[in-house]
Amino acid sequence: MPSSLEIQLRNDSSSSEVYAYITGISLQARAGSRVLLKSNGKDLYFPSEPPENMSPLTEDVAIPLGPPGTTKTVHIPQMAGGRIWFSRDGKLTFLLNKGGPALVEPSVLNPADPNAGVDFAFAEFTLNNDQLFANISCVDFVPRLPVALTLQTAGGQVQHVSGMPADGLDRVCEGLRAQAKKDHRPWDKLVVQRPGSQAAIRALNPTHGNAVGASFDGYYEPLVEEVWSRYHEKKGGILMRVNTQAAPGTLEGRVLANGGELVVGGEAFKKPTTADILGCNSGPFETGASAKRNAIIPRLAAGFLRSCIVNCEHQPSGPETYYKRDPTNHYARIVHEVNLDGKGYAFAYDDVQPDGGEDQSGKVNAGDPKVFIVSVGGNHAYAGNRMP
């Protein structure tokens, strides 16, 4: 595995004012420290402790990509928790807080954030001794600026994540508005407009709905009741089977006779709320010390969010069973429909799939990366594993 890697950043937008920013945690020099690439795309910037919170960076970290169709090559060392940020027609503002220092990243939830009106997106990555792992993500929001990934390995294999076309956000917004008209839930309120404009700049994941007055309280509770009824041992319900895809193997599950808990492989789960299901990390889905429970949680949480847990007693089930009934996460459904290859993290456990199943998560990974291309803008987005 290389100790560093070149990344080709390709401007596939129609704008000449596109910038990239690369942030992460260093795994080599000053290991464990926050690190950013400088504007030349190769030198490293390790921020020092600022004099006060919300202090500006002391280095220029905006990497200009150049005109449409051009490629900028940057060089990164091994990093954990990395992000490749992009902005169009305006630069991003990163700030520093004391205690680390801590990097204050752009927020889509704070209307007072200096980046609230900036068209931005990001891809996530980790480069370590084992592999390069990268993915596109809509766990927080769908950006107006689409991102695509292409990875060629030293062995010649090509992995490609298409992302959305240039008008992908508009399609997502149309889908959310149509769903709101259909079920009278606030899907349309997830659409965020650019300040002072009617144009959408992003669409939020319903996990963050309360930030924009889109409450989904009580939404998934009817489905939870169906699950409890279907797998209730006293009512003659059927067995649930959860393949942990780990050492515990496939575990059986039933709702106890008293109706209080769903027990899978000896691990008890209380009824999740809508917030638990959308976030996948609270209530019964909070991970802990038990490796077995931690292996059950992603499969169980994904089954609830995709609404396939009622009709499919074997979890995880295949993509053909996802989002086929209400209530379900229509944001996730629409995200996958608009992505040209159907791939992209729409929630935290979107990488859950049956053994040998089709990946939904929008990731590329390899222990022998040779060529890594990150394209932004969506003008030449395509489906299929080939080099652009």
UniProtKB/TrEMBL annotation:
Cited PANTHER family: GLUCANASE B (PTHR38165:SF1), PTHR38165
Protein name as it appears in the record: Glycoside hydrolase family 64 protein
Keyword Hydrolase (UniProt): yes
Name of one Pfam family that matches: Glyco_hydro_64
The UniProt record lists the keyword Hydrolase: yes
Tree of life domain: Eukaryota
Molecular function GO labels: hydrolase activity
Organism this protein belongs to: Coniochaeta hoffmannii
Domain GH64: 1-378
Keywords of this entry: Hydrolase
InterPro entries listed in its UniProt record: Glyco_hydro_64 (IPR032477), Glyco_hydro_64_fam (IPR037398), Glyco_hydro_64_N_2 (IPR042517), Osmotin/thaumatin-like_sf (IPR037176)
